[in-house]
Amino acid sequence: MKTKRISVIFLLVAFLLSIPFIAMQFTKEVQWSLYDFILMGVLLSITGLGIDLVLRKFPKLQQRLLFIAVVLGAFFLIWAELAVGLFGSPFAGS
């Protein structure tokens, strides 16, 4: 069962990464490098595995929702920083 969940997470990550890859074939507006795909793959994988961990470790719905919100909040903050330099840190290349 554990292997199946992890497989589903990585298949979902691959599907999400295929969206910009396909878009790159049709438009010049999307220009990702190999580094971008690797970084987003790692970020999505950590987020998916983090959510899976929360779902397995916390039995109460309120706890699950709180910690999933924390995991997703961290994901969106890191994503925004990498995409547009929201905070202007060296992490984003600013």
Protein architecture, described:
There is one protein chain. The protein is mostly helical and 94 residues long. The chain has one domain. Helix content is 78%, strand content 0%. It has helices at residues 2-26, 34-57, 61-84. Helix 1 runs antiparallel to helix 2 (34-57) and helix 2 (34-57) packs antiparallel against helix 3 (61-84). The radius of gyration is 15 Å and the shape is flat. The model has no long low-confidence stretch (mean pLDDT 91).
Low-confidence stretches: none
Helix content: over 70%
Please count the beta strands (DSSP E, at least 2 residues each): 0
Q: What is the domain total for the residues? A: 1
Quick structural summary:
The chain is an all-alpha fold and about 90 residues long. It is about 80% helix and about 0% strand. The chain has helices at about 1-25, 35-55, 60-85.
Architecture blueprint of SSEs:
Elements: H1 2-26, H2 34-57, H3 61-84
Helix pairs in contact: 1-2, 2-3
Which tags fit this structure?
single chain; 94 residues; mainly alpha; 3 helices
